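Session log. Operator J.P. requested a structure for one protein chain; no other inputs attached. Running the standard single-chain path with token output.
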Amino acid sequence: MNNVAQLPKKQGEYAPGSDTGVFYFRYGEKNPEWHKLRMTGLGGSEIGAVCGLSRWVSPYKLWALKTKRITQPEIVSESAEWGNRLEPVIIDKFASEHPDWIILRDPGTYHHKEREWQRANPDALVFDGEQWAVLEVKTAHFEDDWRNGPPPGYDAQVQWYMNVLGYKKAYFAALFHGNTYKEYETELSDISVNFYLDQAKDFLRLVEEDKEPDFDGAHATYETVRELNPYIEDLEVELGDLGVHYFNAKTDATRASEKEREMASRVLAAMGKAKRGLVMGEWLLSRQARGKGAPYLVQKRK
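Structure written below.
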């Protein structure tokens, strides 16, 4: 492998320390070519959606985007905007924590030498004195989401990047609620990568054959279906068993909601004045209050 501490300049060159990650280009997200390329393959931020690990994009929504049934909104959310603005600042912090490491910013987009559709667009590449690794930067609201390590969707993202680049390690530099900085590291999992590759191939086959994925319970899927049918015509459709299943699901949901409220009442009563509720010795529930309002029950984020 090549350990020269510089980024490739020509298409077809390998990433530093890699014999699998082929350099594509170094365009930013505002460049139309970058968005065009995203439509023809799968990047690290998309593999989580393919596997149902994303909070924001379901497999169905991603399929609708890839088949151009819907378009990605041009408006960038405030959280995404500030995540982009803070990325170089967070990398600066990571660099100050590791002054002896080599850090290469804006490394560009790569593809696996055997699978051009498998893309990687990492935030930075680092050499930690022993090996080259991926550096991924994240901003987040809740530390609880990370208490067991990076959330599954983010871990899938860097596993994807590591596989493209042939690296064995990845680092996360995370800033929580704007004032708490933490670092995490993860290693390549061949089992996870093989699963992601199988899921990716199945998904791309659906895109190529223009066949929709199975429906799921994701909010993103529901919103996508709404977007696919924006107009209302004076027509009728017999739903048959599908309609029956819908009303059965609504009844089950109502009963489940009522049961949840019952159990919440029982738990609050059992906790009394206590702030924290333990389950088998682990703090999982809390009593919280807004202002002078009565306390309510909150489940700790996992």
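Operator note: The CA atoms of residues 38 and 140 lie 24 Å apart.
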